[in-house]
């Protein structure tokens, strides 16, 4: 479970909540649109999708106790979710439109796990292009290199 420990020692958990907190603290409306706007609700919708439909399912694939049969079902579930994402990304750069948000950062991270579980995202051309586009962002490329993932 992702955990962010704050300066006061308190902790915030769950990826979607953490990225919202960080975006709000940064004060950058381009990372998470302003409260009350439809753009923000679309970003929250995407965050929730990544958290519940992707992140949770990938968790099963990284669990040593998950049977091979159940892992195969999890991969099928991910394929269906990737179908949804591929359609959503058709004709747009990012999940909610032309602007990169924390939802895109979260999605990129989670979808990137595909290569560690034997899922080739190239069968979803819009999703593969999204992954390449986000990976090419200077700060993302820098982070991937620092983590030894590039």
Explain how this protein is built.
Helices cover 59% and strands 4% of the residues. The protein has a domain at 46-146: Up-down Bundle (Glutathione S-transferase Yfyf (Class Pi), Chain A, domain 2). It is mostly helical and 150 residues long. β1 (3-5) and β2 (11-13) form a beta hairpin. The protein has six helices and two strands, in the order ββαααααα. A two-stranded antiparallel sheet has the order 1-2.
- Helix-strand pattern, N to C? EEHHHHHH
Number of helices: 6
Q: Which architecture of the domain at 46-146 per CATH? A: Up-down Bundle
Helix content: 55-70%
Biggest β-sheet description: 2 strands, antiparallel
Protein structure class: mainly alpha
What would the CATH topology of the domain at 46-146 be? Glutathione S-transferase Yfyf (Class Pi), Chain A, domain 2
What coarse outline follows from CA principal-axis ratios? globular
Précis, in short:
The chain has helices spanning 15-26, 38-61, 68-89, 102-112, 125-135, 138-146, and strands at 3-5, 11-13. It is mainly alpha-helical and 150 residues long.
Please name the defining characteristics of this protein:
two-stranded antiparallel ribbon; mainly alpha; 150 residues; Glutathione S-transferase Yfyf (Class Pi), Chain A, domain 2; 2 strands; 4% strand
